[in-house]
């Protein structure tokens, strides 16, 4: 049993989209469905201007509203806290879509199943990192067990003062961001 | 570039963004459970290298039941470092593209082709080319490629076999100006040792947009070690998260900035005197000229304050030799302005003033291993062709790149009669497309080898389809560096289209038809074996590993004999003088200037596109569509003055044409220019996904060439913007 989480250091992200496409390939997604999306914010006025880049995907909340609102129990957490979707139980009602504050749920238009980032559970079970972590050109992402105080991720969250996105919502997300 | 904005409202809004559906996905959707539950899955992993850009990073291709599933990075590859960018991942879907060329074709009328057999293609092309060369001489034949393995070896060999010197790469519209400036000044293009540098200035080059994983990592490492990073660019590009400051320079004035920074080093005697006295010539002449270019002078030209210019020059001098102006590729001085060659010279000389050549944290000339050759007694080498090149009026440009943009003009003049073009798209990418088409149509024979019907292929006499990079063996690739590497591209999957033929066979068969078959009596495997033999590597070992690092590193701290005429840094250059140009670098105005009612049209890369080749990959063009990133960037103040709002549809109007495009209103761009990303504007109707997305800056670019570097000066273009429907 672990409690898997991720750290994303936005100061190392150049918005190259490598993670988005790697994830699409890993999961056999069509081009128009992506589990990772980006926000970009411009601050200041010319010439004193800067940008902030924010990659967002399923935050694998400890208290996931999508799971709470799923009428069939299709959305569930596995033993390691990874939030998954049982495609046999999903009826495509999209309650999860409207309840996710991170807009992380992605309806598959062919199957009707509402998918999302799965922390590449099958890679993780083999002891590897999720594909978005493995491919990140700037090594902006760290994956690991949040319950292990000696894991790289636990140490780096403290060192880099990483915080979750919209912690005020009470969802207890497990992706920590460095700004 | 992204335009989706983060706001509290969008974050809280409880609705999913719905995107328009494309009907075709090259990878069929299967849920992960289905993919992974299948225990009969036959999964193999084969090393090869990428073809999505010139970096050619090492890949591991994961093949499931004979079909490409995904790629990951080879940890040892010096450019990839185990990572793969968006282009690298998405390109792996191209074997299954519905737009693939599947059989050889011959043009029967304008825009009309008929399928032919390979035998007919070889025979007709061989016969015709032979006739043309007999009648007009071998100089009437040109070869053009975007230098990639196989083409890079077979092209020059084929040219030699027929007796032509006319080798051309795509550099005319990429790095020719920089290359020309650097080659004659410091004798080549070193790599910047960014990771160990303390002060890095980028002029137009953006690691966050023209992504090479190792470069991004090097810059992050430098930052973690306390380096100061400056972006000089009229546009705040996507290297911004890794930079400390942005100098929004007036477009086309980078040369003035570098001259003034050099002035500070010289007048304040902050340069590396020992290096200059030991390893350079002509410093006194340079010094006299550089005295004119004060920071006060440059402030008026560049819009960068003299205080900033002085501060940066002094701060760089403090940490020299661990400081640099990064060498760039195209950036702001590759093929960009009338003064780009001299910007290249000035940049190389500024680095020389810092004494950073072959120093840790500076400019390092990498090593290339000495490769073996085919046994001449069995495989005769054609004699080197020595006839004059068709671009002889550009004597300072390297023959390893050439001035390809001049070919249409030479074709119109009847000097060039035949062209063989492999996997590059001069019509769309080298200069104004109307001009290119008009010129290339005067050829008597135009043969294009490609995998899809590019704009160039669309006007060819013969179109010859290759298997994609995942379906063929290629000639090995050398990656020069502090520790050079040898990589191999090998067949990962069976051919998807049986009637495609790899380029090495196409060259060989055409040569046979011309009676030159003896020069091509070997296979790619035999060639590769011969090339790596002196390195003590076997082909099977290389095929198993994908990349092998040659552990014979460059000795740092030792300045090599430079490959200039004098063997030293040339502050005064005789070759330039002989060619009729100033032997000492000096200020030159850009060719055109916008007024208060117009803009300079500038361009640059996005991380998920290469040239216009990747725009037809559904996974990549979908990013463009999701984020509306084909839009034209315009400065917020200028937009407000013109009553334009973000997302408005405008018309871009130049002397040559009009383009309709939506605008991205931003503070990230200099008010005197508008920016369009360079990956769009495909007009071939056979490029289903790319066709009609965005526009190309080249559509608006008048045909003009920089007299020194032979580039089309792609930012020397003035446009007006007006709202559609007003």
TrEMBL record, chain A:
4Fe-4S ferredoxin-type domain sequence ranges: 4-34, 49-80, 81-110
Keywords: 4Fe-4S, Iron, Iron-sulfur, Metal-binding
Top-level lineage group: Bacteria
Matches recorded under InterPro entries: 4Fe4S_Fe-S-bd, 4Fe4S_Fe_S_CS, ET_IronSulfur_Cluster-Binding
PROSITE patterns: 4FE4S_FER_1, 4FE4S_FER_2
Gene Ontology MF term list: 4 iron, 4 sulfur cluster binding; metal ion binding
Entries under Pfam families matching the protein: Fer4_11
UniProt entry tagged with the keyword Metal-binding: yes
Protein name, per record: Fe-S-cluster-containing dehydrogenase component
Organism: Tepidibacillus fermentans
Automatic annotation (TrEMBL), chain B:
UniProt signal peptide: 1-16
Name of this protein: Thiosulfate reductase/polysulfide reductase chain A
SUPFAM superfamilies: ADC-like (SSF50692), Formate dehydrogenase/DMSO reductase, domains 1-3 (SSF53706)
UniProt cross-references to Gene3D superfamilies, sorted A to Z: 2.40.40.20, 3.40.50.740, ADC-like domains, Dimethylsulfoxide Reductase, domain 2, Formate dehydrogenase/DMSO reductase
Keyword Iron: yes
Source species of the chain: Tepidibacillus fermentans
Names of the cofactor(s): Mo-bis(molybdopterin guanine dinucleotide); [4Fe-4S] cluster
Pfam assignment, any one: Molydop_binding
UniProt keyword Zinc, yes or no: no
Annotated keywords: 4Fe-4S, Iron, Iron-sulfur, Metal-binding, Molybdenum, Oxidoreductase, Signal
Domain of life, per lineage: Bacteria
Family of this protein: Belongs to the prokaryotic molybdopterin-containing oxidoreductase family.
Record-annotated 4Fe-4S Mo/W bis-MGD-type domain positions: 43-99
A GO term for molecular function: 4 iron, 4 sulfur cluster binding
């Amino acid at each position: 049993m672990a409690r898997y989480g991720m750290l994303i250091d936005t100061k190392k992200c150049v918005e190259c989209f490598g993670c988005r496409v790697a994830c699409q390939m890993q999961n056999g997604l069509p081009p128009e469905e992506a589990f990772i999306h980006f926000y970009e914010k411009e601050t200041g006025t010319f010439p004193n201007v800067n940008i902030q880049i924010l990659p967002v995907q399923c935050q694998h909340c400890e208290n996931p509203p999508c799971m709470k609102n799923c009428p069939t129990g299709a959305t569930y957490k596995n033993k390691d806290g990874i939030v998954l979707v049982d495609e046999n139980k999903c009826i495509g009602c999209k309650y999860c879509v409207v309840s996710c504050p991170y807009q992380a749920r992605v309806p598959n238009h062919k199957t009707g199943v509402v998918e999302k980032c799965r922390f590449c559970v099958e890679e993780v079970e083999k002891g590897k990192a999720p594909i978005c972590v493995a491919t990140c050109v700037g090594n902006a992402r760290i994956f690991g067990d949040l319950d292990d105080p000696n894991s790289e991720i636990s140490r780096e969250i403290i060192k880099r003062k990483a915080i979750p996105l919209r912690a005020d919502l009470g969802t207890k997300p497990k992706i920590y961001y460095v700004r | 570039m992204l335009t989706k904005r983060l706001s509290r409202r969008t974050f809280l809004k409880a609705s999913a963004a719905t995107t328009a559906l494309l009907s075709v996905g090259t990878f069929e959707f299967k849920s992960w459970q289905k993919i992974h539950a299948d225990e009969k899955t036959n999964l193999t992993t084969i090393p090869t290298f990428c073809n999505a850009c010139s970096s050619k990073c090492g890949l591991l291709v994961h093949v499931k039941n004979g079909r490409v599933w995904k790629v990951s990075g080879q940890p040892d590859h010096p450019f990839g470092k185990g990572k793969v960018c968006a282009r690298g991942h998405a390109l792996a879907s191209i074997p299954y593209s519905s737009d693939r060329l599947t059989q050889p074709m011959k043009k029967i009328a304008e825009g009309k082709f008929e399928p032919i057999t390979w035998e007919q293609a070889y025979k007709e092309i061989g016969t015709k080319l032979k006739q043309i060369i007999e009648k007009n001489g071998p100089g009437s034949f040109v070869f053009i490629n975007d230098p990639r393995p196989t083409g890079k070896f077979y092209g020059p060999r084929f040219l030699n076999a027929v007796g032509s010197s006319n080798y051309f790469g795509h550099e005319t519209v990429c790095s020719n100006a920089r290359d020309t400036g650097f080659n004659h000044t410091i004798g080549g293009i070193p790599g910047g040792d960014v990771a160990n540098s303390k002060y890095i200035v980028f002029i137009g080059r953006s690691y966050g947009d023209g992504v090479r994983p190792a470069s991004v990592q090097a810059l992050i490492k430098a930052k973690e070690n306390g380096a100061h990073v400056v972006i000089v660019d009229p546009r705040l590009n996507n290297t911004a998260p890794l930079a400390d400051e942005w100098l929004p320079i007036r477009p086309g004035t980078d040369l003035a900035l570098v001259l003034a920074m050099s002035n500070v080093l010289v007048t304040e005697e902050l340069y590396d005197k020992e290096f200059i006295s030991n390893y350079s010539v002509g410093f006194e002449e340079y010094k006299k000229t550089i005295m004119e270019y004060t920071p006060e002078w440059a402030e008026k030209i560049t819009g960068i304050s003299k205080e900033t210019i002085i501060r940066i020059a002094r701060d760089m001098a403090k940490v020299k030799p661990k400081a640099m102006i990064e060498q760039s590729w195209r950036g702001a001085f590759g093929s960009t302005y009338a003064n780009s060659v001299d910007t290249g010279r000035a940049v190389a000389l500024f680095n020389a003033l810092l004494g950073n050549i072959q120093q840790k944290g500076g400019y390092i000339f990498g090593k290339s291993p000495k490769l073996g050759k085919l046994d001449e007694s069995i495989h005769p080498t054609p004699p080197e062709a020595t006839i004059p090149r068709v671009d002889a009026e550009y004597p300072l440009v390297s023959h390893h790149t050439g001035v390809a943009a001049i070919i249409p003009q030479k074709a119109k003049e009847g000097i060039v009669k035949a062209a063989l073009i492999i996997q590059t798209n001069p019509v769309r990418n080298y200069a104004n497309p109307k001009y290119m088409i008009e010129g290339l149509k005067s050829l008597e024979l135009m043969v294009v080898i490609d995998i899809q019907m590019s704009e160039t292929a669309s006007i060819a006499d013969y179109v010859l389809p290759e298997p994609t990079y995942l379906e063929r063996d290629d000639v090995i690739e050398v990656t020069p560096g502090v520790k050079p590497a040898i990589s191999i591209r090998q067949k990962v999957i069976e051919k998807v289209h049986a009637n495609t033929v790899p380029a090495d066979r196409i060259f060989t068969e055409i040569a046979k038809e011309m009676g030159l078959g003896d020069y091509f009596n070997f296979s790619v495997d035999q060639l590769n074996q011969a090339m790596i033999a002196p390195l003590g590597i076997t082909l099977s070992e290389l095929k198993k590993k994908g990349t092998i690092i040659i552990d014979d590193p460059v000795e740092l701290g030792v300045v090599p004999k430079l490959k200039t005429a004098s063997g030293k840094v040339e502050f005064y250059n005789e070759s330039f003088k002989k060619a009729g140009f100033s032997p000492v670098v000096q200020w030159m105005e850009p060719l055109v200037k916008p007024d208060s009612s117009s803009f300079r049209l500038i361009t640059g890369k996005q991380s998920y596109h290469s040239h216009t080749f990747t725009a037809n990959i559904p996974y990549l063009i979908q990013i463009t569509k999701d984020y509306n990133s084909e839009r034209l960037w315009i400065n917020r103040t200028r937009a407000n003055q013109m009553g334009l709002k973000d997302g408005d549809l405008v018309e871009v109007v130049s002397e040559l044409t009009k383009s309709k495009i939506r605008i991205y209103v931003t503070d990230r761009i200099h008010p005197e220019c508008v920016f369009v990303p360079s990956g769009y504007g495909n007009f071939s109707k056979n490029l289903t996904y790319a066709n009609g997305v965005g526009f190309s800056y080249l559509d608006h670019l008048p045909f003009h060439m920089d007299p020194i570097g032979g580039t089309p000066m792609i930012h020397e273009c003035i446009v007006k913007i007006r709202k559609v429907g007003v």
